[in-house]
């Protein structure tokens, strides 16, 4: 009885200590590493088309692995990128301001549409790069959702010249981690990434392991070949563009499950 009370008390203070430590470390890690804030790029020229209809249902399940874009928080403000911009998936999650310029189809006042990259617009080499093969390298091209396109131009134009720039991704709340895989393989889709919006490298740490470097799988997913079930999981993420690093401690509890999405309290700035 006494020893059980003792061990329970010990456990209690141990957990309290862990909590205090993780909270403190999270706060320190977030503040001290948040300096290199993402800045908008200069405006550049490109072209834009759209795919799918006004429901944007065609844009779901794209090459970034975000699945249903309404559930994952991206909505209809999304775009597919030509492979020149897509960078084998490293551009997944990046954000752009786009305005139509130099066509009669452009709306007056040159309004801006803001989009997040969620998909790849693949090349089609059976079409000329200047006649239908709009996404063929080295073209920089945005194939937007129809609702996003309709904010800047008359959709009947089909294709319009645009000016675009990378902008910081404004996200509410922390980075989200969606788990797939099996007992020996953890595949994590990283979503709702602020700042540069992109991930360059990523590590996972179980409460019984050290930091394990994850490798890029596809789109916005990263993997670790490790057995991590039954351990609370922490993540360390570095932005592809800014090299800013954030620490997301104890994102997933001991009883985390595949198929679920966990949200951290931190995000990029
Ligand atoms: C490429 O373009 C051709 C000609 O229009 C079309 O038949 C084909 O489906 C396209 N391929 C892809 C992968 O979109």
SSE diagram, text form:
Blueprint: H1 2-33, E1 44-51, E2 78-82, H2 83-86, E3 95-100, E4 112-121, E5 141-145, H3 146-149, E6 160-167, E7 176-182, E8 185-191, E9 201-206, E10 211-216, E11 221-224, E12 233-238, E13 245-252, E14 261-263
2-acetamido-2-deoxy-beta-D-glucopyranose is lined by residues 124, 126-127.
Written description of the protein model:
Causes loosening and extension of plant cell walls by disrupting non-covalent bonding between cellulose microfibrils and matrix glucans. No enzymatic activity has been found. It is a peripheral membrane protein. Keywords: Cell wall, Cell wall biogenesis/degradation, Membrane, Secreted, Signal. The protein is an alpha+beta fold. It folds into two domains: 148 residues, Barwin-like endoglucanases (Beta Barrel), CATH 2.40.40; 88 residues, Expansin, cellulose-binding-like domain (Immunoglobulin-like). Helices cover 15% and strands 33% of the residues. It is built from three helices and 14 strands. It has an eight-stranded antiparallel beta sheet. The longest helix has 32 residues. The chain binds 2-acetamido-2-deoxy-beta-D-glucopyranose (NAG). The site of 2-acetamido-2-deoxy-beta-D-glucopyranose has 3 residues, from loops.
The amount of beta strand, in percent, is 25-35%
Q: Give the strand order of the largest sheet, numbering strands 1, 2, ... along the chain.
A: 13-12-9-10-11-8-7-14
Oligomer: single chain
Structural class estimated from helices and strands: alpha+beta
The SSE string, one letter per element, is: HEEHEEEHEEEEEEEEE
CATH top-level class of the largest domain: Mainly Beta
Q: Mind describing the biggest β-sheet?
A: 8 strands, antiparallel
Instruction: Look at the structure and give the mean pLDDT.
Output: 88
Q: How would you describe the shape?
A: elongated
Strand segment count:
14
Membrane topology: Peripheral membrane protein
Domain Expansin-like EG45: 61-174
Family: Belongs to the expansin family. Expansin A subfamily.
Domain Expansin-like CBD: 184-264
